[in-house]
């Protein structure tokens, strides 16, 4: 149950936030442009970390920290300071340093690599001191604005995990911000195992397969095996295959290949069981008498335990109420991002989207501008709710 | 010659800046206010809907909302048929159609026309011109150019220079910009105005100038405007009136060789006109305004003839409307 010391925000107040925050449009959008044009591949977020730190300094914040994991945090001291609330956005993008990160701005949308995931989230952090000042909001709790490193791929939420392991503060609740999709309400995290199967052919070619398609034959069998596992499992457990790669040219069969997969399930036991099945699939491809002289090796590079704040937790209920007041239909879906690390620690937390967008993870990824103000009103309203105090997850 | 090289060396030492020297915005705003200066930003446009929104957002946020550094942002447009003006206005720029400023004096299509009319329309003691096609826009494009005018009263005219990677479909090429500079303008300056070779990007579209200088200058309405400024300011105020600031990198649209040919033709007309006006070359014949280029398609060759006359606007100070509006 909620330990609220104050009544819920009225619909009029929440809607007034949206209108008032439109006055900060250029400041927010300039932050999106500048954050968007800084490359920040996982593990190389340094320039974006500095940008966010500089923005915090320019906003007059005094307690700014960078840690060894590449996170940057700023503390907005509360009037009482009895609690610590985190607002987080991951800094890393899926795009390589050399890609063109130019942002284009139209009348009602912006486009460019990584804007939705997650330059807009970072820009909201950078703008938060202005947002709170504009609305005249002072919290009793301390608010920690946190840009986290190494979220994607092999990063395995390294930034958020490092912060939680090393902070001497007891985090009472948290929000994770993602650029899209407004209405997203993630209060649970899926169990997940992310891995790679490396396939290698050794020895001279002795079979037709080996001499004509090389490791592609092995990869094909692995994909078929994964499809078979997916057919047997319930819809709550899935293996996703994101990469099957074996490159050689036109007429030389590839001798090396990799398959990248991710197992997702609400049940940790199913993640482990499916992982074991994939290992068996790979073992079956190891040297088999006179067949392909193949070697297949599985490496698990990232894992998450499932967690759930609960669909009836006061924070979830309030998030749903706020979205409905803003005329946004909540879209409830589990997360595999920073939320997992927070729920792991028993911290009540949600992942929220800021605006609507399209073509995520493509060079023309775009975000719509007008819904951003609904997204901001949502975040501020929930922070006020969290300021009142809520029970642990 | 050694004397000129020494002069250029001293000037480079004293009057060449890097934008990072002016990173402290609070200090810059304090200095601007102490100097009692007002600053106008002018962005000349023609169908720039792809980039104008970003420029206005970044400049308004960083140089007006967060720090009160510039006093107005104006887009002066040559007759765009896309959404340039609508987008610029929606993000807070003042927008003007060039044809509607000083209508009694008519309208000439061309960037120089927009720059000239900006002197009448805008209020600032300093006007900073920034082209609208910059893809990597940043506040340094204004602060780096205006700051030397704030800190050094003897400087009148500050030009930008930078690396110029060209933007292709999805990647950046490291070199290739400034072709007209290297092939045309620098050789001409070397021959006739060697001191002006000190300017690394003499025809860059980004510069900040004091009003009292701008209002004295003639303005070619087309491509020759930057070249004419450099020559005229040099002839009247000397090399020490100039400064230049390194803005690191400017990413912009690539222009075709054909377009650059037209630009070179316009610049050359302006240049030759200046040689004659200053008596540097005498007995020059009347110049044709016809520019001939070829288009080829397999074995067919098509001659394109375009009339390009670099018309010039007179110094703004000579217009009674201007003197009345600005109390001159």
Q: Average pLDDT value of chain A?
A: 92
- Rg over alpha carbons of chain B: 20 Å
Radius of gyration of chain A: 23 Å
Detail the poorly predicted runs of chain A: 1-5
DSSP summary, beta strand count of chain B: 15
**What is the number of domains of chain A?**
2
Helices, strands, pairings?
The complex is a heterodimer of chains A (393) and B (328).
Chain A: H1 11-21, H2 25-36, H3 46-58, E1 63-66, E2 72-76, E3 84-90, E4 104-105, E5 109-111, H4 115-135, E6 142-148, H5 158-166, E7 171-180, E8 184-186, E9 188-189, E10 191-201, H6 208-212, H7 216-232, E11 237-245, E12 256-265, H8 268-283, E13 294-304, E14 307-308, H9 314-325, E15 331-332, H10 339-344, E16 349-355, E17 357-358, E18 366-368, H11 372-387
Chain B: H1 2-15, E1 16-18, H2 25-35, E2 39-45, H3 52-65, E3 72-77, H4 84-90, E4 94-97, H5 111-121, E5 126-129, H6 140-151, E6 157-163, E7 166-167, E8 172-173, H7 179-192, E9 207-210, H8 211-214, E10 219-220, H9 225-237, E11 242-249, E12 252-253, H10 257-277, E13 290-297, E14 300-307, E15 312-313, H11 320-325
Care to describe what's here?
The complex is a heterodimer of chains A (393) and B (328). Chain A has helices at 11-21, 25-36, 46-58, 115-135, 158-166, 208-212, 216-232, 268-283, 314-325, 339-344, 372-387; strands spanning 63-66, 72-76, 84-90, 104-105, 109-111, 142-148, 171-180, 184-186, 188-189, 191-201, 237-245, 256-265, 294-304, 307-308, 331-332, 349-355, 357-358, 366-368. The radius of gyration of chain A is 23 Å and the shape is elongated. In chain A, the strands form four sheets. Chain A has an eight-stranded mixed sheet with strand order 1-2-6-3-7-16-8-15, sandwiched between helices. Chain A has two domains: 11-189 and 306-387, Aminopeptidase; 191-304, Alpha-Beta Plaits (2-Layer Sandwich). Chain A is an alpha+beta fold. In chain A, strand 17 (357-358) and strand 18 form a beta hairpin. Chain B is of the alpha/beta class. Helix content of chain B is 39%, strand content 21%. Chain B contains eleven helices and 15 strands. In chain B, helix 2 (25-35) packs across helix 6 (140-151), helix 7 (179-192) packs parallel to helix 10 (257-277) and helix 9 (225-237) packs parallel to helix 10 (257-277). The model of chain B is unreliable at 168-177 (pLDDT under 50). Chains A and B meet through helix 2 and strand 4 of A and helix 3 and helix 4 of B.
């Amino acid at each position: 149950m909620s330990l609220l010391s104050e009544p819920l925000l009225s619909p009029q107040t929440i809607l007034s936030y949206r209108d008032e925050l439109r006055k900060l449009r250029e400041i927010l959008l300039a932050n999106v442009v500048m954050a968007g044009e800084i490359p920040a591949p996982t593990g190389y977020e340094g320039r974006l970390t500095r940008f966010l730190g500089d923005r915090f300094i320019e906003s007059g914040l005094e307690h700014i920290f960078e840690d060894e994991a590449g996170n940057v945090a700023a503390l907005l001291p509360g009037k009482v300071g009895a609690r610590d609330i985190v607002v987080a956005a991951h800094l890393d993008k899926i795009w390589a340093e050399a890609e063109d990160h130019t942002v284009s701005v139209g009348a009602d949308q912006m486009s460019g690599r990584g804007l939705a995931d997650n330059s807009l989230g970072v820009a909201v952090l950078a703008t938060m001191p202005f947002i709170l000042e504009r609305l005249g909001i002072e919290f009793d709790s301390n608010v920690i604005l946190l840009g986290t490193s190494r979220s994607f791929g092999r990063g395995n939420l390294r930034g958020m995990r490092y912060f939680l392991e090393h902070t001497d503060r007891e985090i009472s609740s948290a929000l994770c911000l993602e650029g899209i999709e407004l209405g997203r309400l993630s209060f649970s995290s899926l169990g997940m195992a992310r891995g790679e199967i490396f396939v290698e052919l050794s020895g001279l070619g002795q079979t037709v397969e080996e001499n004509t398609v090389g490791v592609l034959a092995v990869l094909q069998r692995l994909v078929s095996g994964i499809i078979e596992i997916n057919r047997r499992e319930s819809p709550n457990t899935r293996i996703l295959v994101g990469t099957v790669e074996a490159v050689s040219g036109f007429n030389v069969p590839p001798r090396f290949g990799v398959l990248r997969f991710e197992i997702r399930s609400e049940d940790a036991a199913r993640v482990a069981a499916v992982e074991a099945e994939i290992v068996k699939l790979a073992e079956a491809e190891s040297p088999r008498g006179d067949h392909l002289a193949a070697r297949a090796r599985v490496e698990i590079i990232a894992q998450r335990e499932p967690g759930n704040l609960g669909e009836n937790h006061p924070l979830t209920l309030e998030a749903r109420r706020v979205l409905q007041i803003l005329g946004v239909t909540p879209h409830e879906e589990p997360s595999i991002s920073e939320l997992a690390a927070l729920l792991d620690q028993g911290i009540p937390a949600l992942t929220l989207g800021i605006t609507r967008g399209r073509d995520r993870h493509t060079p023309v990824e775009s975000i719509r501008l007008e819904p951003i103000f609904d997204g901001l009103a949502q975040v501020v309203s929930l922070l006020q709710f969290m300021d009142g105090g809520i029970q642990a997850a | 010659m050694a004397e000129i090289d020494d002069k250029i060396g001293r000037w480079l030492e004293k009057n060449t800046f890097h934008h990072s020297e002016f990173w402290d915005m609070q200090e810059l705003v304090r200095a601007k206010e102490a100097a009692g200066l007002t600053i106008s930003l002018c962005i000349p446009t023609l169908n720039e809907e792809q980039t104008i929104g970003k420029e206005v957002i970044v400049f308004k946020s960083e140089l007006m909302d967060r720090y009160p550094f510039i006093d107005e942002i104006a887009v002066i447009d040559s007759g765009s048929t896309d959404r340039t003006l609508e987008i610029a206005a929606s993000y807070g720029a003042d927008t003007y159609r060039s044809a509607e400023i000083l209508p009694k004096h008519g309208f000439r299509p061309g960037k120089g026309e927009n720059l000239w009319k900006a002197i009448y329309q805008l209020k600032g003691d300093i006007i900073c011109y920034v082209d609208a096609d910059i893809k990597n826009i940043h506040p340094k494009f204004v602060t780096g150019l205006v700051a030397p005018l704030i800190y050094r009263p003897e400087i009148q005219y500050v030009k930008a220079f930078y690396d110029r990677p060209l933007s292709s479909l999805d990647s950046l090429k490291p070199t290739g910009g400034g072709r007209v500079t290297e092939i045309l303008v620098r050789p001409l300056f070397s021959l006739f105005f060697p001191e002006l070779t000190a300017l690394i990007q003499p025809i860059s579209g980004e510069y900040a100038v004091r009003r009292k200088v701008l209002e004295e200058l003639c303005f070619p309405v087309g491509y020759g405007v930057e070249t004419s400024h450099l020559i005229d300011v040099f002839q009247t105020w000397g090399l020490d009136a100039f400064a230049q600031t390194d803005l690191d990198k400017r990413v912009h649209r690539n222009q075709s060789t054909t377009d650059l040919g037209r630009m070179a033709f316009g610049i050359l007309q302006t240049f030759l006109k200046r040689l004659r006006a200053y008596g540097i070359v005498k007995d020059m014949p009347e110049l044709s305004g016809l520019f001939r280029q070829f288009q080829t398609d397999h074995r067919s060759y098509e001659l394109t003839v375009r009339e390009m006359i670099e018309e010039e606007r007179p110094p703004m100070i000579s217009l009674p409307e201007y003197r009345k509006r600005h109390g001159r």
